[in-house]
Each structure stands twice: as C-alpha cells, then as structure tokens.
Backbone:
C-alpha cells in the first residue's frame, strides 16, 4: 500500500521550505527513524525522519526545489503489505489563503450580579476588633470547620506571625496545620499550590507581597491557569495572603501595591479589604472558594479597630463593592487603605458643602462594575483614590469602565488620585510627598465638581 | 570533560563510586548524622540491578514502550501536517523511564507530575490515546477539552497532575502533592519528573530543602536526556551527576540507566520502598536520550547525526526489550503482530483526533473560574 510522504511543517509558523537534499534514493528500503531528506527553512535546516517502513518508490519533488508548500506530496513509499494508517490530510492553509469568513463569535456569558451582603439581624451586637484579629479569627474559624485548611509561611507558627496575624494558631491547631517555612517564597508558593491541586486548602502567608514577586510564577502560571488549561479537571483552591502596599519608611523594595498586577490575571480572585468586618467576612469566603485567591492586606491598617457583627458565621460575598458613605455630589472609588483617606476627604468636603459618596471596591477581581456605574449615574462625577502607582492601575481600569459604559452619565472627566510615579523614597518628607492623602482627594473631587 | 551519552558514561562513574566506597560510611555522610549515607540506596540497587519480570510483565513493558514510540511518531507526523500546532515535545528514546517507574506505582494512592514532555507519562497510565491525541490537535474531545494542548494535560482520575510548561515548576508542585499525601496520611507518594535543564532551577533546591526538612514522601526524578533544549548538560551544569545534587539536603541519590526498563523498574522498587518506609525523599537520575529535537521546531544542530544513531543502534530501550523477549522464546512474528496492533490503535487515535470537532466558541469563557461571583 502506497504511503504519501508530505512536505512537513517543522515549526508553528512554517508555510513553505526548500527541499535541500534527498538522503535516500528511489528503491531504497526505509526503516522508521531513518533520515530521508533535509528541509531548509529561513531559520534552519531540519531532518525529515521516516516513521513508516517500506521502499521509497518515487521521489516527486527534486532536491534543490524551493518554496515547496507544507503538505505537498514529495515522495511515495510502498509499505510491506502492512496495514498502514491512511496519511491524514493536511490542515487547511493558514492565513494566506484563509477564507474571509469571520470567525464565529463566542457568546460571552452574561455577567451575573454579585450577591449582596447578608442581612445583619436588627439588634445584633457589635464588637470592636482589630483587622489583625479579624483575619486571625476568620482563619481559625475556617480551620475548625474544615480539616483540609492549613496555614504555611515564614514565621507563621512559633514566632506567631511577623505581623502577628497568625497569633495563637499554632497553639490551637498544632504544627501539622500551622507550618513554618524556610525563606523560600518560590518554593513554598509552589508547594502550597501543589497541595491545593492535591485536595488540601492551603493559606499561604507572604510576610509581605513584595516577597511574593519571587513566587509570582506559581500564583499566575500554576494557580490561576490550571483550571482552564485542564478543561476544568484540576483546581487550585488556595489563598495567598499578606500585607500589601506602602508601610512606613521601609523604602522602595518593601513598599508596593500589587493589586493591579494580580487583578489583571484571569483565573485569580483578588480581594483587598479595608475594615475588620470585611477582612473577616471576605477571608472566610476566600478560604471557602474553590478558586485561587490573592488576599491583599495592609500593614498600616492591621492595628485599627472596627465593629464586627457578633454573628455565628460572618461570610461576605466575593465580587461585591460596598458603599461606605452615601452621597449625591461626587463618587470616590477606592479600596484598602484608600478607604480611610477617602472617608477623611469626604468629611472635609462635607464642610465645603460637597456630599461625596465613597465606594470600597473590596474585591479587585472580579470588579463590581455595577455598583460603580450606579453611583456614577447618581452623582455624575467620579474620582478614584488608590494607594499605588497611577500607570496601568485599578484607577485606570475604573476610568476605562466609566468611559465605555458610563460615558453618558459623566459631567466631568474621571480623575485619579494615586501615588507619585516614582519608587517610594525613604526620607520622611519625600515619602509623604509620594503617597496619596486626603487633601489630594479633596482637591480632585473639587476639580470634578468644578468648584 | 563533556558528559557522554548514557552508555559511555560508565567508566567515569565507577571511579566516582569506588571513591565513595573507599571512605567509611561515617565520613561519607554529608553531616554528622552517621545514619545518612548518600549511596545507601545505590548500593542496594546495584546488588540486584535488573528487575525479575514475569513473561507477562516483559510483554507489557514492550507493548507500552512501543505504544509511546508509535504514538509520538504519529504526533510528529501530524505536526508536520499542521494538525498539531505550537510546541510539541516528543518522548521518543525516553520510553523506558516512564514505563519502568510508573509500573512500580500504586495507582490507587500515588501521584505523578511532570513538565511539558508529558505524552509518554499519560500513555504509561493507560489513558486512552484518543483523548491525548485529540488534545494535541486541539479538539473538544481532548483530555483538556482542547484548552491545554501538548504541554498541559492532566488526569486527576489517575492522579496525574500534569503537564506544566514552566521549567522546574512541577518540582515544587510535586512537593505540594507529597505534602498532601503526608497531611492526609494516605500512604501515597509523589513521583516528580524533571529534566537535566530544570535541575538548574532554584526552586528545585528550595523544594529539596523543604522535602527533606519535612520528610515528604516524594521521589524526584531527573530525566537526564543529555540536553537542556540545545545545551549539552556539561555546558550548563557544574555537576552533571545529577543524583549527587541532593547531598546538600541529605537526600540520597540513585543513578540509573534510563534506557533499560528492567533496571529502571528495579531502581524504582528500591526508591519507592525507602519513601514508603517514611525515610523521606529520594533523588533518582535516569540517564536517557532524546532522539528527536527538544521540540518539533528544533533542528538539533548541536549534536551529530552519528551520536543519535549510536544511541538508536546500541541503547534503544525497545530494541533492548525485544532482544530480551526473543531470548525468552518469543518469535519475531509475534512481536511484529504487537507492533501492527499498536499501529492500528495509534492510527485510530489519529483519525479520532483529526475528525473530532474543535471546541465550541462558548468554551472560550468556561472554566476561567470554578465558581460564580
């Protein structure tokens, strides 16, 4: 039975090549693995290897022929009376001769509205709790409820956490579930991701997210992409958490907001809460999520106290922003430490007769566009306040959303108030100049209000 | 001195071993713990180097290795025809490694993870060649629904965890799978494969450290196919005896001829027992050879045709097994019949992969996240 040998494509982009040399002649017996010919492309010379056995009966394209299209029959092989696979037909020619018919458009699933926060029953008591304790309580509650949940990271166990967020966990859960790691972020982020793939529910603490740069490959390539790449077979339910953003006078390498970095990656959930109630409710949701979560905390906020409702199981919806202050004249969209500054700004603006609404995004991915656009439709003016660099920021994203989907509601251009576009300096005065503050937010709101 | 391909390495190695042997076990230990001997497993393995397989097992090894060979040859052909795109890394020449190791696993408990050269490991599990080939052609029926491709295939049903494209990442992920075995106390171990190229990645050593520190049930396998893409191991690695690379972490090493499936299996028995006995990780170096380029688009100009031919002629794992079978009384015609059957299976897989539809456009948006928010 005749087997057709076709001009092979030797790279993803090759469309044609030169048949440089025949290494076999008509009548030669061919064994699988024999090099039959040499093919040249613009990049390299490659060997064309036989996979079938038989006798080379006919050479159809002479050596030295140029511009031989991929898929052209270049020779015939007579098999030894064996049943051979019919040579498959080549794939249609790429681009060059592709039909002009447009590719079928994939229908995007309609975005569902994010769930609202659960009702807190009237009369529920509130307790003042620091953000640090709220995070710890969330982890402890989830660890009590689910034996698969464990914490790993640098100094999380015996030292009780570099920022004391894991205080007391070792005592309650023991070293099997509260694991001190060596200082090897790339390695333990990978081990955590692998454990999640293997069915556990790891919480990986980065002492700060600055050090997660060492581990970002696993966060993005291993954790975020695996569910998709595996066609939904393999999940990676993991929480990467730790302080993010500028702390105080720790210099450029320890002061960066990674919110925009992670929020740009499909397959990740990115949460950046401000107060204790949100920190607790969203941490519990993050641990329960079947998706990989990047949970961005803020060192400067850890010690602040806020009310947390005394309910049995305080879980908040991922993907839902919160209006922390209602107002009618302008909207300030913000998250994390920016929320405190925005509230401060709103108080100052109120004294000038401007009634600002403050939205805490809480989740950076998926972003709650609905809440932002609804507020814009009400106030017609919007400012984004973000403790982070301005370029390719969450602020940029919000501005883009307002342009694309809220243009008709805008009475003024959306403005962003971000850190200065420089590495964070150490000197106290320069650091202060580089970071956002309430007066700058006030100024921007006045600008969009044309006051 | 350049590290020579598998077989010609022997002389240099025996020198190395005799040097170690000359020392007393105590001084050979990398720390002051007298119980740790780097070569303890190697010595046990050397004592019975060839697995005493039953006739049935021999035939099965032959059949499985041949299936990988024929499958990969067909994949190469489909690539040449433009039916497979992107990167496609073939396992031809390395078949004995996956077959020898995976045949020693407890498939109910143990997990496997590897890099991007993953078709062979999938086939070694007995996963249907059709769904593997359909993944290569990017079709809906592919094991990852056509969304992963050659480098990203998984079968959680078989505890096969991929299929990873970032060189060395699977080693740390494998450490995590091992952590899960230990955490769940399920008696399983993780087999983490990586190449001689990946052996120079920093995270490999971060993982060695934690695996040894936490006594994780993991077998690290360096598939040393002599080339990290186009760079010979001696040009990229200060220490090309990869089995020694665990010494700093007190991980015992083993050096194995990865072209001999019976030797691989014998070594696997020793390594797996060590891990299952709770003695912590093992590092195995499997010396093998990749006949084809690093990927389909590699012209392989960094080595001579003679070097490849020498391996094919003198060290081929399938030819070696064929000789064993003939010695055991099987005749050539029977073996030819097996080849014919396998060619048929592979041809059917190729037909299936070619005729299956591409994924529907709506698949674009599915499985980005598991939950809805």
Residues:
């Amino acid at each position: 039975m005749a087997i057709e040998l076709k001009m092979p494509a030797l790279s993803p982009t090759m469309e044609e090549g030169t048949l440089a040399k025949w290494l076999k002649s008509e009548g030669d017996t061919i064994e699988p693995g024999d090099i039959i010919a040499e093919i040249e492309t613009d990049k390299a010379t490659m060997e064309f290897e036989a996979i079938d056995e038989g006798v080379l009966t006919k050479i159809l394209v002479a050596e030295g022929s140029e511009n031989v299209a991929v898929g052209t029959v270049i020779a015939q092989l007579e098999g030894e009376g064996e049943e051979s696979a019919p040579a498959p037909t080549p794939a249609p020619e790429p681009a060059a001769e592709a039909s002009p018919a447009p590719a079928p458009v994939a229908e995007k699933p309609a975005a569902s509205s994010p769930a609202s926060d659960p009702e807190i029953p009237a009369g529920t008591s509130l307790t003042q709790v620091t953000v640090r304790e709220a995070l710890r309580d969330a982890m402890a509650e989830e660890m009590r409820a689910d034996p698969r949940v464990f914490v790993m990271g640098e100094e999380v166990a015996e030292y009780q956490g570099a920022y004391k967020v894991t205080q007391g966990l070792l005592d309650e859960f023991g070293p099997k579930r509260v694991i001190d790691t060596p200082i090897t972020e790339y390695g333990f982020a990978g081990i955590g991701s692998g454990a999640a793939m293997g069915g556990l529910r790891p919480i990986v603490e980065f002492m700060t997210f600055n050090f997660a740069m060492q581990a970002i490959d696993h966060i993005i390539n291993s954790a975020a992409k695996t569910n998709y790449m595996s066609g939904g077979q393999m999940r990676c339910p993991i929480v990467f958490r730790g302080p993010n953003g500028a702390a105080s006078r720790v210099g450029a390498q320890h002061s960066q907001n990674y919110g925009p970095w992670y929020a740009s990656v499909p397959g990740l959930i990115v949460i950046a809460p401000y107060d204790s109630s949100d920190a607790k409710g969203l941490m519990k949701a993050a641990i329960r999520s079947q998706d990989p979560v990047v949970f961005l905390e803020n060192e400067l906020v850890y010690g602040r106290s806020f009310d947390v409702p005394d309910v049995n199981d305080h879980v908040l919806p991922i993907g839902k922003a919160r209006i922390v202050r209602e107002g009618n004249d302008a909207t300030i969209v913000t998250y994390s430490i920016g929320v405190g500054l925005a509230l401060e700004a709103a108080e100052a603006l109120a004294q000038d007769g401007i009634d600002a609404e403050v939205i805490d995004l809480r989740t950076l991915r998926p972003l709650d566009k609905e809440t932002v656009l609804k507020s814009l439709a009400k106030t017609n003016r919007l400012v984004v306040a973000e403790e982070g660099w301005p370029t390719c920021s969450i602020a940029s994203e919000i501005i883009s959303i307002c342009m694309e989907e809220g243009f008709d509601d805008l009475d003024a251009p959306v403005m962003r108030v971000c850190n200065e576009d420089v590495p964070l300096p150490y000197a106290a005065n320069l650091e202060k100049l580089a970071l956002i503050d309430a007066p700058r937010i006030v100024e921007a709101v006045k600008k969009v209000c044309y006051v | 001195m350049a590290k020579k391909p598998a077989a010609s390495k022997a002389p240099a190695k025996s020198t190395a071993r005799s040097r170690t042997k000359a020392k007393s076990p105590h001084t050979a230990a990398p720390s002051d713990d007298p119980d740790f001997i780097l070569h303890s497993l190697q010595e046990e393995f050397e004592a019975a180097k060839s697995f005493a397989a039953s006739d049935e097992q021999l035939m099965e090894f032959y059949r499985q290795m041949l299936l990988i060979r024929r499958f990969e040859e067909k994949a190469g052909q489909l690539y040449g025809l433009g039916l497979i795109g992107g990167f496609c890394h073939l396992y031809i020449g390395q078949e004995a490694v996956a077959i020898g190791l995976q045949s020693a696993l407890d498939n109910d408990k143990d997990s496997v993870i590897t890099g991007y050269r993953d078709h062979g490991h999938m086939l070694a599990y007995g996963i249907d060649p059709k769904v593997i080939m359909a993944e290569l052609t990017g079709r809906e029926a592919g094991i990852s629904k056509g969304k992963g491709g050659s480098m990203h295939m998984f079968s959680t049903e078989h505890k096969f965890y991929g299929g990873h494209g970032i060189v060395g990442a699977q080693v740390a992920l494998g450490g995590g799978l091992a952590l899960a075995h230990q955490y769940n106390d399920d008696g399983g171990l993780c087999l983490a494969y990586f190449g001689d190229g990946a052996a120079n990645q920093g995270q490999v050593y971060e993982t060695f450290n934690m695996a040894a520190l936490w006594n994780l049930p993991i077998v690290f396998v360096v598939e040393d196919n002599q080339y990290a893409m186009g760079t010979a191991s001696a040009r990229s690695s200060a220490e090309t005896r990869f089995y020694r690379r665990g010494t700093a972490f007190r991980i015992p090493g083993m050096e194995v001829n990865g072209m001999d499936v019976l030797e691989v299996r014998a070594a696997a028995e020793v390594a797996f027992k060590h891990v299952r006995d709770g003695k912590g990780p093992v590092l195995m170096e499997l010396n093998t050879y990749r006949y084809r380029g690093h990927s389909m688009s590699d012209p392989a100009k960094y080595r001579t045709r003679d070097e490849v031919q020498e391996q094919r002629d003198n060290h081929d794992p399938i030819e070696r097994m064929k000789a064993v079978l003939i010695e055991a009384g099987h005749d050539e015609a029977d073996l030819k019949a097996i080849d014919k059957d396998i060619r048929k299976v592979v041809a059917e897989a190729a037909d299936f992969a070619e005729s299956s539809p591409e994924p529907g456009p709506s698949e674009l948006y599915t499985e980005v996240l598991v939950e809805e928010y």
